[in-house]
């Protein structure tokens, strides 16, 4: 097949050259004959004059005498010979052209529009006509004038340059539109794509073709963004060249011939330059594109573009609105341009082609079309591979593996980024079982994009592949850091296993350790730039961890999917390109910028519900446009989730859900419900911001300094911490083994304290709300060595009690404050622990006096600035900006630095005061 097509192409080229040569010879011979005849006539006129003067006869006699002159017979004979030779040779030109066009411009390529306009083409696009009709030309004949079609080579054969004349824009549009309709009507839908650019018009570029704009067959470009079109064409050229080189071919035409398939569509790029001088860089890029375009199946039609191309280019220069000169016929032959096809017929024909293309693609594709017939049949040992959308009916896949280990997704708000993530996750989850794929999903923006993947009140199902789901974490950057630490720990664990088995990648590890559990891990972090929003330790540590995971994660099957509305403002990565260099898979939603390479702006013109998929680090030749079906609407993804849940829920645990917008409930928290009586009680203060659903607790052994301070004026959070600490301690003591002493001088908080006392009594413990705090403190301090049970002092608003504590009764040596200091220092060793709430750091310092801060071994700070906390954190600088619903926790016996915790939600019905 390839050799036959090549022979045919060579014959066309040879015939064209022969006809051009023949026309040139004939026109040259005619010009030479005319010049010779004119010279002979001038000579005869001179001789005639001599004869006339010498003989002095009448005119008729003179002419008769002259015609009998031997020279006259010679001239007449020469003229007859030239005329006969001219017409004999000229007859072959039109005949050859007619034969050439008939053989190489079949169907719509040359026939009158009435024979085909409105019909959908059937040529599959493996081969193309060699010529395309633009008009006709007429030459004189010996008997009658000779008319023949004028056609120009396009597509694989040649570019076309059109030079207009004044007031001929409508004529130029007619020429271009006629050619495009001939091409579009020749091939089956999808085999040709048209690109339109006009430096002078925002819209109305060949408007009759606009019905095609709802398909991939027609794309318009911004008049000020010629580079977008050139970049896209250059990308196609590089990609096709790379594909051809691998297969040993030098052009797309050879690839088609060898495979017998249309591996790529033909592309026709129409550029209206309006005679304006291109910028030097644009002109150079246009020349580079034109040089490699034909081999890549790309044909340029340039209208008034003042750039000389060093490649095969046919030219057409308009004389007026009906006539032109074509390089096909030579400079002395005028082409009668065919009239523009009727506008209404063109619009209807373009609409039929668009409808046929949509029907061929199966109509709008749905999320269900992405899913396999059987769930969980694929292996992730080598890679993860799944379709995320469709282009012209064909599935477009995303591949995550060693070659493309990490993903960068960008798209402004409303561009469909969340919908794309659902398509990606659903397509992967349907193909790989939870043993093959583990998902960690984190959404930093204020929303619940992934919340539906965890069990809820309305829907108890969850996505079995999900191990962690974090939503509404825009203010909890620490949770993102915790995820990175978890991934870094898992990376070290896998690296150690790989070293043990003497392998270097996940596939080999799974082969050598078939009994191990080594799924591929995909961590999706939406709006990941929030993780690096501050110039603090969180940003610094997160940057280091992310870079390490990005570099080494590929070999151990740990992959990052980083999504953002804009990656331009991430200062943490300025000068540190390691993460982005590892994100070789780039996905750009419509209007996204700086996600692909700096010069690749393909996403700017991408239509809604589409995405540009690029596995080559964003370089233009790797672009794949995909229509992404609706995956995020109500009940679309849920249907798949229910199928997966019903299949896997009994074998896999529900995912850990972290919702930054909701405080955890103590009664529902595993760390609380699992508490049992022990001789090593632990007070729970809040939830740790960590991958595991862990509580932040304080061990209260009989050791110095084991007291807890709650710092700040945030009443709700302070009451919550006091409540959860007391109730968790009560749960760990046998009935009657501990006594709770409560003091609350803050009237508004008394109802909450009374409610807590009732709960403690219900748990079998003595709980007393005292009015005389100084007296009770003095009593306990004086009897430390003889106490028969553990004591927990729950002191609310200690700063409000200081005046009463400072007062001394007549004859009293030590005040209640003095004895409180004794309890803080000596009480823990005797089983007396103080949990106090101070509303300011200054009041806590007043309470402690000159004893220093060692007696407060643990604290939870609320609305207190970090610089005030340094004395209570071993002198280190504390970075803390208070935020609602959060506390900063530090235990000098276990912490190197403070950590953020979330106070538990107090039971409904308690008053906050």
From TrEMBL:
SUPFAM superfamilies: P-loop containing nucleoside triphosphate hydrolases. The keyword Cell division applies. Coiled coil: none annotated. ATP binds at residues 411-418. It comes from the Bacteria. Pfam families: FtsK_SpoIIIE. Keywords: ATP-binding, Cell cycle, Cell division, Nucleotide-binding. InterPro entries: FtsK/SpoIIIE/SftA, FtsK_dom, P-loop_NTPase. Residues 393-598 form the FtsK domain. The keyword Cell cycle applies. One of its GO terms (biological process) is cell division. PANTHER family: DNA TRANSLOCASE FTSK (PTHR22683:SF41), SPORULATION PROTEIN RELATED (PTHR22683). This is Cell division protein FtsK.
